[in-house]
Amino acid sequence: MTSATSRIASVLISGAIAAFAFAAPAFAAGGDDSGGATTPTCKKGEVYDKKTQKCVKQSGANITDENRTEYAYSLAKAGRYDEALAMLDTLKDQNTAEALNYRGYATRKLGRTDEGIGYYLKSVQLDPQYAKVREYLGEAYVIKGRIDLAKDQLGTIKTLCGTSCEEYRDLNEAITDPSKI
């Protein structure tokens, strides 16, 4: 290997190591659809307490509704749909845009698409500017074969956050290739 080739290889390897080191915390923490770290999932019967950053017993835990809602979403994203729904059942206020969206997501993933759509529509009523619920509603419409309604949601998302936001990209991909849902 020539010294020039050796220097180039060294630079490439250093760059790759630096890129991995920079990205490693994101891989370790997991990721959600918003690009941030997801809440870790705990054993059944426990909930992740953001304040103490530990899993605690679900019963008797003094955990906020916001914390419980985020945890329910983490459970749903981990494929633990029934547990996500059970967590959402523990909310003092179950009628928030986020709680209804995540309830819709979990029920849709359990194959109850029409029920999921009902929750999504209630979420949209509470917060018409909530792009994530519009993405999931659009995906449900794709599942139902209602591409026209999915494209309507895509158009709304475009007005909310443009074409480069994750919600737009994900729904556009689902419309283009429904097997990605």
UniProtKB/TrEMBL annotation:
Signal peptide interval: 1-28
Chain positions of TPR repeats: 97-130
InterPro entries per UniProt: TPR-like_helical_dom_sf, TPR_rpt
Keyword Transmembrane applies: no
UniProt xrefs under SMART domains: TPR
Keyword Signal set for record: yes
Domain of life: Bacteria
Keywords, comma-separated and alphabetical: Signal, TPR repeat
Name of protein: Tetratricopeptide (TPR) repeat protein
Taxonomic source organism: Rhizobium metallidurans
Lineage of the organism: Bacteria, Pseudomonadati, Pseudomonadota, Alphaproteobacteria, Hyphomicrobiales
